[in-house]
Amino acid sequence: MAVFSLILVTNAQETKTPDMQDIVYTAKFICGSINDGSGPLRPGHYDTSIGILNKKNYAVSFLWYASINDGPTSNNLIKNIEPEKSTGITCKNIKEMFGIDTKEIVEGFVIIRVPLSSLRGFSNEQVIADSSQDNLNILDVQVFYTANALETLPHEVVREKISFYIIQDGTGKIPKESFRTLFDVTIPSTPNEISNTEQKVKSILGKKYELDKKELDKIRIRIKDVSIGVGTLLDDHAISLHVVKPQISS
Questions:
Q1: Buried b (16+ CB within 10 A) or exposed e, 128-152
Q2: pLDDT 10s digits, 200-242
Q3: Each residue's pLDDT tens digit, 30-88
């Protein structure tokens, strides 16, 4: 019986990991807008969302803090995740920690720490049996980056297609072969706006043939048809996803 007890003690010593204290996930963030070309990133609007999933069948508590490049570091915040539940950290959360209310670019890192001392079962045994990658990966941490170079988000745009004839030209600047020829022009339109379609067409003719206001008064056109179309604003948008691997902190 004494020999059997000795074997149990020896095996317990082999599976202990006394140097392990925390499981750490480090995620880079970039938040805000760049208005010039002075940096490595192109002008645009940048956002970061850090998704955190508790993959285990027991609750997990973790500490997290943010550190701004060449700037301050926040205090630790504690967060609890129930089994197989998820949470997130966004640019809004990070900026609120530092009291940042501007749109200027902010870069840095979010550090997530899972203390091993908090991972104990009902009989107070350590949940992490060894330091293999599978056992260490308590959380699924993914970072979602977005960048948009446009001032506004993509949205529907209403456009008018106007078909018209040039009936008379008192300026002599419009080629005669253009008379009584059916032309089309497509222009942006604002919903529920009352506008003068003829003046819109004349404005375009003025730019094309360099006509001033008095000369435009000498031109007669006839509108044949107006149709409305809906298109989508071009999107200069980029997204990327990064999976964060856990590290051991001693």
A1: beeeeeeebbbbebbbebbbbeeee
A2: 999 999 999 999 999 999 999 999 998 887 765 556 678 899 9
A3: 999 887 766 677 788 899 999 999 998 889 999 999 999 999 999 999 999 999 999 99
Residues in the chain: 250
Please write down the HEC assignment for all residues of the chain: CHHHHHHHHHHHHHHCCCCCCEEEEEEEEEEEEECCCCCCCCCEEEEEEEEEEECCCCCEEEEEEEEECCCCECCCEEEEECCCCEEEEEHHHHHHHHCCCCCECEEEEEEEEEEHHHCECCCCCECCCCCCHHHHCCEEEEEEEEEECCCCCCCEEEEEEEEEEEEEECCCCCCHHHECCCEEEEEEECCCCCCCHHHHHHHHHHHHHCCCHHHHCCEEEEEEEEEEEEEECCCCEEEEEEEECCEEEC
Q: What is d(CA 67, CA 206) in angstroms, rounded to the nearest whole number?
A: 57
Rg of the chain in Å (alpha carbons): 33
pTM: 0.59
Rounded to whole angstroms, the Cα distance separating 195 from 180 reads 24
